[in-house]
Protein: Septin 5b
Organism: Oreochromis niloticus
Amino acid sequence: KKGFDFTLLVAGESGLGKSTLVNSLFLTDLHKDRKLLNAEERISQTVEITKHTVDIEEKGVKLKLTIVDTPGFGDAVNNTACWRPITDYIDQQFEQYFRDESGLNRKNIQDNRVHCCLYFIPPFGHGLHPVDIEFMKALQDKVNVVPLIAKADCLTPFEIKKLKERVREEIDKYGIKIYQFPHCDSDEDEEFKQQDKELKESTPFAVIGSNTVVEARGHRVRGRVYPWGIVEVENPSHCDFVKLRTMLIRTHMHDLKDITSDCHYENYRAQCIQNMTRCEHDKTYTWSQKKLRRMQQMLQKMQQQMHEQEL
Ligand code: GDP
């Protein structure tokens, strides 16, 4: 079996645990040799996009997973249009696909389009920050945005519940289009329906990441050790990590890919074709204008000659 390609992009302020979460999700170390920048470098730093590919196998299905990490956002003093490098990156992948699709080797196109963006919302504060709203709005028509509450271990279960409600309200209020889980058919089995209901109610997923394996209740688990106890990444009563992982690579991967292809890419493609037609139209228009002007000049000359002859 050839397996699948899937591209996931992580975005959100620096330091919210993006690399750690990806690490926990797919057991890869994204930044083995990341160097910390000094203050001067940070100020001038632009968003630097890095790409990593991992091969994973999930229930016998091979998966080529590409993770696009966007370190740096929020480090700079001026964060105006800090999403720009990310939207440009997404567009570039669409452009490449569009070119490949119109080329000769259409059967073997490498699909690098971004299928999903995990957007990290800070756990501090009382909901979305203005930059979160702007960021998600800038991405919403280009990619499936899945919002997450980062570092959920900083909050009590009650605080998580409140923050989730608040974020959902604000998403509605500001008209942010996030990835919508598809409707569950009435003939689906009960277990599936229950799973679907839980997924929808858990949005935005509250997540915790960790790079260390610890001993908890006689098992070795990914977790964070605090003086008062251990937070387990994969324990459903501690956070929604397992829900997110299952949704991404098991239950909803195909839907995320379909929406990317049928909706986001189609929009891009339609826009491209429209621009190309307009260009053609403009060219024809300029050509006709020139021809008309030449004819007018000729006519003027003839009229002048006739006038001179009459005299
Ligand atoms: P990034 O800049 O968004 O990629 O963030 P990193 O993954 O580099 O994490 C920044 C810091 O937050 C590190 O010190 C991590 O150990 C810590 N961290 C990561 N995930 C979590 C989490 O879920 N909870 C808590 N409390 N800290 C975390």
The chain has a mean pLDDT of 85.
